[in-house]
């Protein structure tokens, strides 16, 4: 790859590496210092770029308030197995087709959009909270409203409770759909009462959470459910600027034999157009075609619209962000950079990064621990105290952050030792690590995370902790 980028022969690069005592073959990985040495040796000039350089400007342009327009809500359906999530999704979709609005075949692309009272609503077509959690673990939030399905002839079950926790952790408002109202044993009030115990206060019980009685079998109440979604959506005042280069989120993606990489995305802001050059995760491409949930070709897709995108170099992951960029070279640069980073992470993982944030979380889950330890170093007493008080107790019902050590000043070997003992990453706020500490951390696989904005720091920790919630069984 290095040879390629310099338009040199790989064999010449390998030779120079040999001269440096590095016996490597094409495909092996060298570090950036060695790459710079080789490149300069061959008469090329090297510009070192950092993450912020490469990814700068990708998604940091704020929208002017006057450019904002209302956008449809994106809805996920969650609940216990067999309570009727799939049936409900099918019925909602069917109801629209029956209205004659769509006609033709429906195509499962992972999301679909319907209309109620002239207002559009997008649904994620994968029921359950697995997809939801997977996306959130990547820092993505695709959902505006969560429908909690509870069967009226059953009751609140383990996955109902899980779903409630997920929605609450993500701060996504819920609507309760009490399903199977057609069954003889249906008792909606029993469901409402049981939900109280899990701090879900529905309207009927004097709370604010909308609840609707439905039957996914007969279709009764579906219209009320859609009305409730529209009402909730109005309360949320969902908005986006449609008039800018698009950004979206990947819902699912696969490699299709005939069509190549196919990614279903939901546009989050801007309008995606055929021919746009996009980066999605570490893949990139020119949008060759866009297809809606009826298999029809689209020319463009605005905010909250789901669509299949064809033309990417490979399949990105669910939760990856898709961003329009202004040139192919820019797209390639970002995608190259991200691929490189992914490989580096892989190498680091193989080397056993015991103290990385993610690795620590995995370890804790395996051990069933409920405290996630952190070591914090900051530039002033004030900042350290602020971070300590925001982090302590942060988390979910399953796991909470616990600051095991907090101090002022640069990171030293003693901090790394402490982090090793608790197998925790070190959170650095506006401070750096001295050389010995850096080397020790590297050797021992302790991750040092640098921050200069407290919000980012808290957000990262919060996201990681909530990603720990056990997946649906
Ligand atoms: P999921 O696991 O939550 O996706 O549940 P499904 O949609 O697969 O439904 C589980 C079972 O309940 C299926 O046999 C459905 O036919 C049935 N079912 C779903 N909704 C209703 C309903 O409103 N009334 C009745 N009687 N059966 C339902």
TrEMBL record:
Binding residues annotated for GTP, in chain numbering: 79-86, 125-129, 179-182
Localization: Cytoplasm
A GO molecular-function descriptor: translation initiation factor activity
Coiled coil: none
Region span, Disordered: 50-71
Keyword flag Cytoplasm: yes
Limits of the Tr-type G domain: 70-239
Source taxon at top rank: Bacteria
Main localization of the protein described in the UniProt heading: cytoplasm
Keywords carried by this UniProt record: Cytoplasm, GTP-binding, Initiation factor, Nucleotide-binding, Protein biosynthesis
Function of the protein: One of the essential components for the initiation of protein synthesis. Protects formylmethionyl-tRNA from spontaneous hydrolysis and promotes its binding to the 30S ribosomal subunits. Also involved in the hydrolysis of GTP during the formation of the 70S ribosomal complex.
Protein name (Swiss-Prot/TrEMBL): Translation initiation factor IF-2
Organism encoding this protein: Pseudahrensia aquimaris
């Amino acid at each position: 790859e290095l040879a390629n980028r310099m338009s040199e022969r790989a064999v010449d690069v390998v030779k120079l590496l040999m001269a440096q005592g590095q016996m490597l073959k094409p495909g092996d990985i060298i570090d950036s210092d060695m790459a710079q040495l080789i490149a300069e040796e061959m008469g090329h000039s090297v510009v070192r770029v950092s993450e912020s350089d490469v990814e700068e400007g990708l998604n940091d342009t704020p929208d002017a308030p006057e450019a904002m327009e209302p956008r449809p809500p994106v809805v996920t359906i969650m609940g216990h197995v067999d309570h009727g999530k799939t049936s409900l999704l099918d019925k909602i979709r069917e109801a629209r087709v029956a209205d004659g609005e769509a006609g033709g075949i429906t195509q499962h692309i992972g999301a679909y959009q319907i209309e109620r009272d002239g207002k559009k609503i997008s649904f994620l077509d994968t029921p359950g909270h697995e997809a939801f959690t997977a996306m959130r673990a990547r820092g993505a939030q695709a959902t505006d409203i969560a429908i909690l399905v509870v069967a009226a002839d059953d009751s609140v079950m383990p996955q109902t409770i899980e779903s409630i926790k997920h929605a609450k952790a993500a701060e996504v408002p819920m609507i309760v759909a009490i399903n199977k109202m057609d069954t003889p044993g249906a008792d909606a009030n029993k469901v409402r009462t049981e939900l109280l115990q899990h701090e879900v206060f529905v309207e009927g019980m004097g709370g604010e959470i909308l609840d609707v009685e439905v039957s996914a079998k007969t279709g009764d109440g579906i219209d009320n459910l859609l009305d409730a979604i529209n009402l909730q959506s109005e309360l949320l005042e969902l908005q986006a600027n449609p008039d800018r280069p698009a950004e979206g989120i990947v819902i699912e993606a696969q490699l299709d034999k005939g069509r190549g990489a196919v990614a279903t995305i939901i546009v989050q802001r801007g309008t995606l157009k055929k021919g746009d050059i996009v980066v999605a995760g570490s893949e990139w491409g020119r949008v060759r075609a866009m297809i809606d949930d009826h298999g029809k070709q689209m020319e463009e897709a605005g905010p909250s619209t789901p669509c299949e995108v064809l033309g990417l170099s490979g399949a990105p992951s669910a939760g990856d962000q898709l961003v329009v960029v202004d040139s192919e070279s820019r797209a390639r640069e970002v995608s190259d950079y991200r691929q490189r980073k992914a490989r580096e992470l892989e190498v680091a993982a193989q080397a056993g990064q015991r103290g990385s944030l993610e690795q620590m979380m995995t370890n804790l889950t395996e051990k069933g621990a409920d405290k996630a330890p952190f070591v914090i170093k900051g530039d002033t007493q004030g900042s350290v105290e602020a971070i300590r008080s925001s982090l302590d107790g942060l988390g979910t019902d399953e796991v909470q952050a616990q600051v095991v050590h907090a101090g002022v000043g640069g990171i030293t070997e003693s901090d790394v030792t402490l982090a090793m003992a608790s197998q925790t990453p070190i959170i650095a706020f506006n401070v750096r690590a001295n050389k010995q500490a850096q080397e020790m951390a590297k050797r021992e696989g302790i991750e040092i995370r640098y921050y200069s904005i407290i919000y980012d720091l808290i957000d990262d920790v919060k996201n990681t902790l909530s990603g720990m919630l056990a997946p649906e069984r």
